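Anyone? Bumping this.
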Amino acid sequence: MTATAAQTQTLPAEWRDFFALTKPRVMSLVVFTGLCGLLAAPGHIHPVIGFTAVLCIALGAGGAGALNMWWEADIDAMMKRTAKRPLPGGRLRRTDARDFGIVLSVASVLILGLAVHWLAASILAASILYYAVIYTIWLKPRTPQNIVIGGGAGAFPPLIGWVAVTGEITLMPVLLFAIIFMWTPPHFWALALFVKTDYAKAGIPMLPVVAGEVATRRQILAYALVLLPVSIAPYWIGGTGAIYAIAATALSLLFVALCIPVFTRRSAENDPMKPEKRLFGYSVLYLFALFAALVADRLILGQGAFA
Amino acid sequence: MTPEEEEQFKKARRGRNIALALVLGALVVLFYAITIVKTGVVE
């Protein structure tokens, strides 16, 4: 096997470069929310099977991430934030990235189907297709609502984890999906506000570039206001106890509070964008804390996965 | 390719192969554990 390439010289790929394709930082959030969905679901699942379910969610997310990087290698080369990724950095052949993504995606679905059950596996398959095809290939370059729809992909893990335990889709896991769905736009648009120029150069229609800064700030607050009742809804339908209700209320109110300065201000020349960065940082903490509260509520007040 | 590049290439390939071997080994262990759980041999 020779290492000659038709394009610019590609350095020999290390295993680390393949691992980087899977978007490890995104994967950690996926693993966490998937695990929380699993732990918070009513019913019993053997720890080995539960571990396998979460592993498959992680592998599926990794495969989808690799396919996304494969497809967007050219765009990534144009943005500061992503120029060091394995493909734009010339450390990997494009076809290797594609094949790696496909193998991970197929294997994760097959293993989940065989080890747990096919309903969870088909939802995982749908989420991978949703992210890699519907979002990455079709929607992202076409509409500034790309984040809204693409956010659906990140909302699947708790649904999959939950369904892995219960074997059926009910309102609770759908609410968990809805929470992340509502959370994604303010999370990403806060980011887009302070890396606006990067996306613009690459020609990706992000809301601040297409609809303007004011519209983006308004939408951020709007989604945060919707997120408030949606995040408390699990308590209202009787799916959780008071621990989650109080945590969700406090966390979501703080989220709204942090969105207000983002909504009212306008960025100036060489703006440090502090409120936007603070909101973005908090949004990550928010998700972790909310789902941790969900699990804590279930384990302390209710009947958990290992009951 | 130069001896230097060849060395780099060999190191990278070795690293990939070891990583793959570990992943496959872990899958073997996992499938074994799942089989035991599902066939109710121990639990």
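Late reply, but here is one note on the structure posted above: Chain B touches chain A through 18 residues (CB under 8 Å).
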